[in-house]
């Protein structure tokens, strides 16, 4: 059921790093993104895929993790993502690409969830540094990084009251709790 | 299989308008969007749902359809959407909301596809007019409209060569053809 995939698709930030995600798997996921809606069908997005060292480590070094967890510097060695898909766009496209990137990224993560993987969309990126790491031409702009791997953490959803605090948090067992608004608070009557 | 849903999730613009989409169905779809990733978990999106006349017709009158089909003014009466989900955001949120809207809209459409519905994300909106139709407070900004219904048209994907024309087109049988780039042209090596 699609609803099960949506529920299982949490943002994971710790992984069994030794469990490889193959290039073929990444290509399968990008092929899903290839088929999604695109503003005016422009299809300006491009996908840089990585699933090996030392590239994985170089990408990792350009990312910021979980802004609300002030004490946490991101996943330690051994718990880092096994793969990345970096979503970039050809510059010069005027429309639709920010919607497009969300559409594509979510489709990739839902597809990953179905096969037992998980990940996280990361917007906190040192853009110039990652541009250099990937040797990306100036004609490309980085929009989002998707970190992927086999999840090594438990993530649970907490329903919050209207105007409740939306900051996620970790308990003493390192379970990650994510406050989500209730349906009644997001539907306009 | 998730891949089947992704493939079946085309942008549909003609519907069996008399086949109702209930409010409960719309709430189920919005509940999927409630659980998706959100930039910094801010959850700034809100959802206005409509599944009845005269509201449906009033929303329809604010939308532009299929920009590349110059001869086509949009679906005729009887083939118009049976429902709409309008994605709006609370103004004053600084981050993440354009990614968020794509993430949410795609999740809604994939969920609709699973239950035999289809639809189209529409960004060509007369914003002020729709704001008035929905009686939306000034504190909300309209981001995207999702038109929904039981699809009444066939949509096929055509693979295009590198830098091929991305404009969709209709053949003499009113089949809608959508050119999509090939995998090799969207993956950066």
Report what the structure shows.
Chains A, B: Belongs to the nitroreductase family. Chains A, B: InterPro entries: Nitroreductase, Nitroreductase-like, Put_nitroreductase_C_bac. Chains A, B: Keywords: Oxidoreductase. The structure is a homodimer of 189-residue chains. The first copy, chain A, is α+β, with helices and mostly antiparallel strands and 189 residues long. Chain A folds into two domains: 2-152, NADH Oxidase (3-Layer(aba) Sandwich), CATH 3.40.109; 154-189, putative fmn-dependent nitroreductase like fold. Chain A is 29% helix and 24% strand. Chain A has six helices and eight strands. In chain A, the strands form two sheets. In chain A, strands 1-2-4-3 form a four-stranded antiparallel sheet, with helices on both faces. Chain A has a three-stranded mixed sheet with strand order 5-7-6. In chain A, helix 2 crosses helix 4 (97-114). Chains A and B meet through helix 1, helix 2, strand 1, helix 4 and strand 7 of A and helix 1, helix 2, strand 1, helix 4 and strand 7 of B. Strand 8 of chain A pairs parallel with strand 1 (45-50) of chain B, so a sheet runs across the interface.
């Amino acid at each position: 059921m699609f609803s099960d995939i949506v529920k299982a698709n949490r943002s994971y930030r710790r992984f069994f790093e030794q469990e490889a995600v193959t290039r073929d798997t990444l290509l399968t996921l990008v092929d899903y993104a290839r088929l999604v809606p695109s503003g005016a069908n422009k299809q300006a997005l491009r996908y840089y895929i990585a699933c090996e060292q030392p590239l994985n480590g170089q990408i990792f070094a350009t990312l910021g993790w979980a802004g609300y967890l002030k004490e946490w510097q991101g996943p330690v060695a051994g718990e880092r993502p096994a793969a990345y898909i970096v979503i970039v766009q050809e510059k010069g496209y005027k429309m639709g690409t920010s919607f497009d990137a969300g559409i594509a990224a979510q489709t990739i993560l839902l597809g990953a969830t179905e096969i037992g993987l998980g990940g996280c969309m990361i917007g906190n990126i040192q853009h110039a540094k990652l541009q250099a790491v990937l040797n990306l031409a100036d004609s490309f702009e980085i929009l989002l990084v998707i970190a992927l791997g086999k999840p090594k953490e438990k993530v649970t959803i907490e329903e919050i009251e209207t105007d409740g605090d939306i900051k996620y948090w970790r308990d003493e067992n390192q379970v990650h709790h994510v406050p989500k608004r209730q349906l009644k608070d997001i539907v306009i009557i």
